[in-house]
Amino acid sequence: MLEVRDLEIRYGPFLAVDKVSLEVRQGEIVGVIGPNGAGKSSVVRAITGLVRPTGGTVSFLGQSTLDVPVHELIRRGLSLVPEGRGLFPMMSVEENLLMGGYSLTDRSRRDELMASCFELFPILKERRNQLAGTLSGGQQQMVAVSVGLMGDPQFCIFDEPSLGLAPIVIQQIGETLQKMRQLKLTVLLIEQNAMLASSVADRIYIMSAGRMQFHDTPDRLMKNPEVIEKFLSA
């Protein structure tokens, strides 16, 4: 469904991503984990057209995403739940969700999607008229996920959804990601939290210093002495 091959990204003379390749097949949850500064978010920006790579290819549903406007990628079924949530804090929960569904021309489908989001997160239905900026961090993350789902995507990218959240909320985020399977969504999860990623992903890539270092199932990676020593011992 998504294929990245030999991706290279430079910011001026600085090489941020070096020959990175990854693949996400339909129906999978695939994690990309690694420390801060590993290049994970740069890969996301290249996939979603926010930064132009200096080399390599990115294809979604068999078509290149390079030089494709963001709104066209959304129309094709790609959605991003960004790092930091990206909400409009002075707008209500419902207004934020409507912004997520702005590209939908079918009003009945938009209403169906909103009802689905409220079923997924009942607390948001109770607080649909509350300003998003006044919600707790966990509730704001629920809104961010819902905004991403309002575009009626086939494929969702979650960029650091656990960042800055308490452990109990991170557990809720993991439960939310598992619900993506019920919605028949394919997911690329970008995370620093290895435990969260390993609890939900079918396969995991480990990035460090701009390169892919390991790729395997969570069970095998968690038993790999080199992975434990380099990435899980801290």
Please explain how this structure is put together.
The chain is an alpha/beta fold and 234 residues long. It has ten helices and ten strands. The protein has helices at residues 40-47, 70-76, 93-100, 107-120, 122-126, 137-149, 167-182, 194-200, 218-222, 225-232, and strands at 2-11, 14-24, 29-33, 55-60, 63-64, 78-81, 155-159, 186-191, 203-208, 211-216. It has a six-stranded mixed β-sheet with strand order 6-7-8-3-9-10, sandwiched between helices. A four-stranded antiparallel β-sheet has the order 2-1-4-5, with helices on one face. The longest helix has 16 residues, at 167-182.
Q: What attributes does this structure have?
A:
six-stranded mixed β-sheet; single chain; four-stranded antiparallel β-sheet; 10 strands; 10 helices; alpha/beta; 234 residues; 39% helix
As residue ranges, the low-confidence spans are none
Q: Report the span from N to C terminus.
A: 34 Å
Topology pattern, helix = H, strand = E: EEEHEEHEHHHHEHEHEEHH
Task: Please bin the fraction of helical residues.
Answer: 25-40%
Spatial strand order of the main sheet: 6-7-8-3-9-10
* Mean of all residue-level pLDDT scores: 90
- The total count of strands amounts to 10
Strand residue content: 25-35%
Report the structural category.
Answer: alpha/beta
**What about the largest sheet?**
6 strands, mixed
- The Cα radius of gyration reads 17 Å
Categorize the overall geometry.
globular
How many DSSP helices? Answer: 10
